[in-house]
Predict the 3D structure of the following.
Amino acid sequence: MSADKSHQMVIREAIRKIALGRSMERVNMAPGGMSGVGTARMIHGYVAKVHDDPADSEFKEYGGTVDVGEYPDETASTEPIIHKGVLLSAATNNEGGFLIVPTLFSDVTIFMDAATKYAYIVNFSHVNIINLTAHTETTIGVTETEELDPDSDSTPDYDELEPTGNETSTKYTATTVTTSVKNDKDKEATVVMDAETITQTVDKSEVKQTADKVVQKVNSTTIVLADNKVTLGDENATEPLVLGNELAQLMLDFMTECSKIMTPTLMGTMTPVNFPNFISLSSKIQKFLSKTSFTK
């Protein structure tokens, strides 16, 4: 080999090392056919097995992972290639964080690092479980914005588009869950829940539930449901409701007794002149009883 040729190879290798940096170590660690920057390989396949059964003999080694089989067009091998113990996230275990468990035989895409032998799923066609666990706060929401005009050179970028006012969000903390829905008419509905209280608010209407009572308000009108007690109109109301059937029977008895009144006259004792009215009123008593609302 000439000196010039040798110098060119040295210079080329030096440039390669500078370009790849620490990736050189991973390239050198990779087996034949797997080399490349970062030694990553993308594989399209299917979920051949989900290791979620503690009674299975492989669970001790592979629990919390899946096996992925390569599609025939992804490899020239005549035998099906199964990648064992593929992780469900880009971590070395599946504890906490963001976890998606795919369904059996669903399509998946996995990344495999030949140097570390770690493989993890990056795309799913169907899933059984989605789990998102955070230490402090998780927020999920949608904020609608004006449409992007792809034909205009002056259209704002996506992050600069004006919001329309329609938005939804649910915020989770360790102690509360807050759900909010707003529209472009400045209306808002919220639900706030903690371990002891659930409060739903829509404009001037509110429903608050605790362990011992439920309070519903519309402006200043209140209905309270508690153990062995219901109050209408105001939470501190003290006037008792009447029992409809009892009142109807009392009025019927009263009308009956009134109809028996005898009045002394020159012609002897006689029934009141308005006696027929008592009979008429008695027939109307049942009409004031509600057919839809009841009390005890």
In short: Residues 18-24, 32-37 have pLDDT under 50 and may be disordered. The longest helix spans residues 3-20. Residues 3-133 form one domain.
